[in-house]
Amino acid sequence: MIREWIWAERIPLTRRWGVAVAALGLVAALILMGQRHGFGVLEYLQFALDGLRGGSIYALVALGFVLVYRVMGVINFAQGAFVMLGPMFTALFYEQKWPPDPGLRLALAALLAVGIVGALGMAIERLTLYPARRASPLTRIIITVGVYLTLQGAALLLWGPYAKVLPSFTTLSLLDPTFRFAGLRVKAQSLWIGGTLIAALLSLGLFFGRTTVGKAMRACAVNRLAARLMGIPVDTMSTLAFGMAAALGAIAGIVLGPVTRVTYDMGLELGLKGFVAAIMGGLVSFPGAVLGGLLLGALENLWAGVTVAGFKDLFAFGILILVLLLHPKGFAGTEAEVERA
Amino acid sequence: MRRAGFPSNTVGFAIGLPLILAIGGLEAFRPMGLSLPALTGGLLTLDTMIRVGLFTIILVGLNLLMGYAGQVSLGQAAFYGMGAFFSAILTVRARALGIPPTLVEAWWWPWLVMLAGAFLVGLTAYGIGRPILRLRGHYLAMATLGLGIVVYILLRENLGLPHLNLTGGFDGIQGIPRLRLGGILLWPAWRYYFLVWLFAFGAIALGLRVVRSRVGRALRAIHGSEMAAESVGVEVSHYKAQVFGLSAAMAALAGSLYAHFQTTVIPATFGFGPSLELVVMSAVGGMASIWGAPFGALTVLLVQEVLRTQLHRVIPNAQGEFEAIAFGLILVLIMLFLPEGLTTGGLRWLRSRMGLRPPSG
């Protein structure tokens, strides 16, 4: 039951093979292009491994897209802004003097930031999407675009255009240790990011599988009217789902913070790529979104390795168009769900 | 559904045309030292009015797509850019491409390029829209989002062919020639202003025509309910792809006109941000309203102008991006409180205040 809900649909074997063949073809093309640079297996593995770091972030962001889409039927383009606000607030609190222990301070700052962004998400849902709950999906999508622009503008007003810095979670300094094994390099922060993704997946699974609120939220996603008739406060569930998605976005931004430049406009790229990852997964499936994110991150980095650097972003959005043209259901997702988009 | 809108369209042309002519005449002759900036306290310049005209052309297409067919495009600036760069490349880099100089020198060459560009871009959009629009809902929005960014990156990265240097990368293309009509150079600016507004009114007339036609009725039916429209024999994906192609062609035409106006094109003008800006303009003017196009463009450009001159006092370090601050708020507020936009929503409000019956539908 929960398994079916999470996957949305078991993928038919033929379609799975089709996707596998397409992916293999893509990998073969990447390897062929890499021949010009004389890359060996180790280089490819390193590219893919580095890409998984970004991919985990896309996956976390994509989870937020899927959550909001399933419960509310809205594609939430404001998600990127929450990804930016997470590390922004964390950096703000980390810069304070209290508590004196930097580790404790970072942990508190991160917790506080996630809480604030989650609450902000809920407030925004109440103020913008809730009053427009009867409006057309078009109107609601445009509202989320407006929310994104507003939040980004507010961040620019509050913090200016300069990049903020978050310390590495391991050393609490700007230097992040690198581990080596079998000739591959992994940054410590990458392990934090991967661990966060796993933890997020597990807690989402527990939330939807074991808690009453989670089950109520699932009911809203399946049939809003029936859920309302069963006495579930569907509007509250929407608000909660939106807040959860915002918090997920903030977490993604915070764990990425130490290995990127935290600027007011960092949310655009991450939000859009998380969106691409969600589409790759069919927009309705949590594991699909995670798979989409990881695959997108790894392939994108391979692509950037074998072509010029300026072409890196071309991959994600090229994939977006291809997926929509050829296989709009993604890895998972039913016809009915796709039509609701 | 609203009827053909006979009185309001007549009123629109009756007010719009003389107003535009008056502004053009004022700038052309500058009687008694009067000029547009002097009369409006520096808020409006001929430059702004030309931009309003260009955006009107794009917005009429975008409104047909968003307001009438109910499909949001988050990448409309890409078609604008495709038109602009098509014109720029085929006029400035024509010789490098092996096109005979006699052809390039001819006065009609840029016009031919402009038409060909609009046609090709429209065809491309139709080709992309056809398969995607078979799916219901907002798949087009997602695809246009991807398309917009892909086109921007391709323009920025020289289409992936750095040795040809077709688009000029980040710096774009300079030295695009001014348009000529036979022996008449369409410059100084007021001459170009008349040209742009000729096209803009053409676009408005075309838009009104489309709305009133069989296609327009089909589009409104699709917006109402795709399933119902399909069940009475409206070929939904066909119409949607058609209007998508038309809106792309109009954006490309505006792009060509922009290229010959600015004489310089850079990829940044056609990125994701500008696409959102077009959506804001469309929402402000009123998506389901052809006359909303010039109003939306003018309002947003005026807001931008005020911000440009005033806001740097609040945030001294931000350059270029500060307009976005107000855009988001405007967009949310309009969608929440005046989802029909300033024109349709404003007129409805005015009518109800004057105790008149609101228009049917």
UniProtKB/TrEMBL annotation, chain A:
One of its GO terms (cellular component) is plasma membrane. This is High-affinity branched-chain amino acid transport system permease protein LivH. One of its GO terms (biological process) is amino acid transport. GO terms for molecular function: transmembrane transporter activity. Signal peptide: none annotated. The chain crosses the membrane at residues 17-35, 55-72, 77-94, 106-129, 141-162, 190-208, 229-255, 275-296, 303-326. It is found in: Cell membrane. It comes from Candidatus Thermoflexus japonica.
From TrEMBL, chain B:
The keyword Chloroplast does not apply. Keywords: Cell membrane, Membrane, Transmembrane, Transmembrane helix. One of its GO terms (cellular component) is plasma membrane. It is found in: Cell membrane. Its main location: membrane. InterPro entries: ABC_transp_permease, LivM-like. It comes from the Bacteria. One of its GO terms (molecular function) is branched-chain amino acid transmembrane transporter activity. It comes from Candidatus Thermoflexus japonica. It is a multi-pass membrane protein. CDD domains: TM_PBP1_LivM_like. The chain crosses the membrane at residues 52-70, 77-96, 108-126, 138-155, 190-211, 243-261, 281-303, 324-350. This is Branched-chain amino acid ABC transporter permease.
